[in-house]
Amino acid sequence: MGKSSKYPAYATGNININGNNVASTSKQNNTVNSSYNMSDLEKSIYDGVQSNLAQSLGNLFAISDEKQKQWNSQLETYKKQGIKAINDIYTPMETALKNDIASRFGNLDNSIFMNNLSSITDNKAQAVADLSDNILSKQSDLYNTELANRMNYVNTLNNLYNGFNNNILNYMQFALKNSESGNNYNDRAYKAKIQQQQMFLNTLNAIANLGTQGINGYKTLTDVAASKVKSKTT
Description:
This protein has helices spanning 40-58, 65-105, 111-233, and strands at residues 13-17, 20-28, 31-36. The protein is mainly alpha-helical. The protein has one domain. A 3-stranded antiparallel sheet has the order 1-2-3, with helices on one face. α2 packs antiparallel against α3 (111-233).
């Protein structure tokens, strides 16, 4: 009887690009492992993206003292420019009113001057109030712009990180499919070999059975002949 065939070992799978083993699948004991082999450059970029993403998410809503000083400086500049613009508008109006009243009445102690001055003062006060509102709005814009920039940066890092991971998973799946293809081939080859061995054994058994039948038949004929000879002699 032929020696039984041993089941083939697990077929590993590899993905090679330009001579470099990019991804592989192997088996250790009962565990199948798939791995991606990063180049030094890929690892440096991947680690950098991962580190910056974690740091950016951790500090997403935190405003540093340096950033706050920068905003305060911008707001102070905006405030000074606004006050200067208001004064450039209303100070000449006040001066012109004083000169006009003084030239016509000789003094400023009259209702015409006070009424006109009150109108200018009210408009100036409203302009200052509007400036204050604009400063608050500007402060909110600075924060919202900073937050939007940070979110865009986080999204960019996240897209890069996901792109890396998807690329890694794709290569690992290719390596796994190569391994599965090899194992399927080995399984079919093993079953075909077992089938051939079984057919060979069946053939041997058939031949052996034919031989046994021939011997038995020969014995039967011999016994018959011997019986006839014996009957004649008696």
